[in-house]
Amino acid sequence: MRLFLIAATALAVSAPAFAADQLSASDYVKAARCAGVAEALDVDTSNVDALLKSQRRGRTPYVLNKAFEIRREAKADARRTKASDRSRSEAELSGACAAFMSNDSSQMLAGTPQS
Fold first, then answer.
1. By CB count within 10 A, which of 20, 26, 34, 59 is most buried?
2. Angle (CA) 85 86 89, round 5°
3. Nearest Cα to Cα of residue 81 among 37, 30, 35
4. Can you tell me whether residue 105 is helix, strand or coil?
């Protein structure tokens, strides 16, 4: 019985630490959108792809499917825009997507980027 209580206490203490390193579902989907826009503009997506891969575990199928759809739609939308309208997509990458695209994923985990 005592061993059970020790194990339960250890799990309770470690659970918040795991949650603190997890993006919210909406931030996960936002990161997927950023990846789609970046792909369309031929920008390196290795950082955001690594972030999405590391944050995939524990996601519901709904969130994973929504992120896939949003990424695909963002990529298609960014590719459809005329060269003169690319500035909007580029502004999104340098603004709302900057934290997702950075090398330092801890920057993203510290707080939500301002959009």
1. 34
2. 115
3. 37
4. helix
pLDDT at position 13: 42
CA distance 5 to 18: 20
Of 25, 89, 94, give the one whose Cα is nearest residue 61: 25
Distance in Å from the first CA to the final CA of the chain? 50
**C-alpha dihedral sign at 66, 61, 34, 49:** negative
Q: Rounded distance, CA 82 to CA 80, Å?
A: 6
Q: What is the mean pLDDT of each run of 10 residues along the chain (115 residues)?
A: 47 44 94 95 94 95 98 93 80 91 62 45
Which residue is it, tokens 């795991």?
18
